[in-house]
């Protein structure tokens, strides 16, 4: 329909956002928009919490990696939506209030997924699939001109949600190995879908069955969710308590060849998966903070997972499987079991802070990589250095006010350090501490030479 033919000098009108006719669509008023956005905030917030609750205990390495990324993205999405809501005459209060009892029940069931497959099905086949539907519907029904700031935010979120959901659906297919797996996955999906339908979907627009009573077998006892914080690794990994290779010493020893020192740094990156495994429980158990806290901590968790992947790629470059040699998780196991969340966070900050001195810290690591002429390692250490500077800032930002000052923070960290050293050492007896570093080093060098000769 063309109501009038404007002379736009051949230029696209309305900044190219939409046509005149689309701009005549009344769309949502402020109250309806805010109501929906609050629901989406709740969804993104709950997904962030679920990733935090499960990242340590899911055994599959690739799921840990993706969980770190998707957790941070969901935390960012929640922050973007919160900001947009406050721009619409809405005070920044009650943004964590449950918008609907049915949606709350859905997430209470989802977080109680008992296997990785159930978790993947719940997050990607149900929750994210429904969120994508809701975002698309919002973009179709709102006025694209008057509500452009919201549309821009939702389009950014939608792109990342669709990428996450695609990864998740592929993960589900990989994890459904047996017919029993397929049946269990379908049953869990059907159950969660029923919970979601009973709530009317995330937007509250789906038809509810008048006669259907939601069944929530995993939450009906009324008890809070009991997070499983013990870290696990899948069957590819072995000897997770082996600490025979003194990685943190090898790269500092100037008597060792430069390539060995750099390989020690690469393996140090690989071992960083232990950090997301202890940060997840910190984030999940720490309640009542401003949302910026969860965004910052999720970003740091993702960085640490990404650093592990840098190590993974560093081994791949020279033809070695990243799961072939021990990657111990004594630190995350100890902190999750023996320390309170605040204590674990203080130790995390202390470890990061110790890497800041110029002569012994991240700058030195970068210089060691440069001396070996391993171009990939140089780039990895360059970015790792920048990330760790950010992480010390995050630690100070949230811990200094919590404990009463920087000196008090240092004092508390030094008091906690002997405890973690003692508790971690107790786990050494779970391994025969077989020496593996010489074999690893030889295989990396042989792989490097073989690939260079091609």
Describe the overall structure.
The chain is mostly helical. It has 17 helices and no strands. Helix 9 packs across helix 14. The longest helix is centred in the C-terminal third of the chain and has 29 residues. It is globular and about 80 Å long. The termini are far apart. The model has no long low-confidence stretch (mean pLDDT 95).
Outline type: globular
Q: If you compute it from the alpha carbons, what radius of gyration comes out, rounded to the nearest whole angstrom?
A: 25 Å
What order do the helices and strands follow? Answer: HHHHHHHHHHHHHHHHH
Number of domains: 2
Helix residue percentage: 55-70%
- Class derived from helix and strand content: mainly alpha
Query: What percentage of amino acids are in beta strands?
Result: under 5%
End-to-end C-alpha gap: 64 Å
Overall mean confidence score, pLDDT: 95
Characterize the biggest β-sheet.
none
Uncertain residue segments: none
Number of helices: 17
Number of strands: 0
């Amino acid at each position: 329909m063309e109501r009038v033919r404007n002379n736009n000098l051949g230029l696209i009108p309305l900044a190219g956002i939409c046509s005149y006719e689309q701009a005549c669509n009344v769309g949502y008023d402020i109250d309806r928009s805010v109501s929906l956005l609050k629901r989406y905030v709740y969804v993104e917030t709950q997904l962030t919490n679920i990733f935090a609750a499960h990242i340590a205990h899911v055994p599959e390495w690739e799921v840990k990696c993706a969980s770190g990324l998707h957790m941070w993205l969901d935390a960012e999405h929640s922050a973007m939506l919160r900001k947009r809501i406050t721009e619409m005459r809405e005070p920044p209060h009650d943004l964590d209030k449950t918008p609907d009892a049915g949606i709350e029940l859905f997430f209470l069931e989802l977080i109680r997924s008992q296997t990785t497959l159930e978790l993947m099905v719940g997050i990607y086949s149900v929750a994210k699939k429904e969120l994508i539907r809701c975002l698309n519907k919002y973009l179709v029904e709102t006025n694209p001109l008057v509500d452009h700031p919201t549309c821009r935010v939702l389009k950014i979120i939608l792109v990342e949600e669709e990428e996450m959901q695609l990864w998740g659906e592929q993960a589900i297919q990989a994890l459904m190995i047996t017919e029993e797996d397929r049946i269990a996955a379908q049953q869990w999906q059907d159950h969660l879908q029923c919970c979601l339908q009973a709530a009317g979907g995330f937007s509250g627009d789906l038809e509810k069955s008048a006669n259907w009573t939601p069944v929530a077998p995993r939450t009906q006892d009324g008890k809070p969710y009991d997070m499983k914080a013990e870290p696990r690794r899948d069957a590819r990994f072995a000897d997770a308590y082996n600490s025979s290779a003194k990685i943190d010493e090898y790269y500092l020893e100037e008597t060792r060849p430069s390539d060995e020192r750099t390989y020690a740094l690469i393996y140090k990156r690989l071992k960083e998966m232990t950090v997301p495994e202890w940060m997840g429980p910190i984030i999940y158990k720490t309640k009542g903070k401003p949302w910026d806290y969860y965004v910052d901590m999720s970003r740091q968790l993702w960085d640490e997972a990404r650093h592990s992947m840098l190590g993974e790629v560093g081994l791949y470059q020279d033809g070695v499987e990243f799961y072939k040699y021990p990657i111990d998780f004594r630190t995350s196991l100890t902190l999750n079991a023996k320390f309170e969340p605040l204590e674990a966070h203080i130790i995390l900050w202390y470890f990061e802070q110790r890497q800041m001195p110029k002569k012994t810290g991240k700058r030195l690591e970068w210089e060691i990589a440069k001396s070996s002429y391993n171009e990939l390692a140089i780039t990895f250490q360059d970015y790792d250095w920048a990330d760790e500077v950010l992480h010390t800032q995050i630690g100070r930002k949230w811990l200094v006010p919590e404990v009463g000052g920087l000196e008090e923070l240092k004092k508390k960290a030094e008091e906690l350090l002997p405890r973690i050293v003692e508790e971690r050492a107790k786990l050494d007896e779970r391994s025969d501490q077989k020496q593996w570093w010489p074999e690893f080093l030889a295989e990396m060098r042989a792989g490097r030479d073989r690939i260079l000769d091609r």
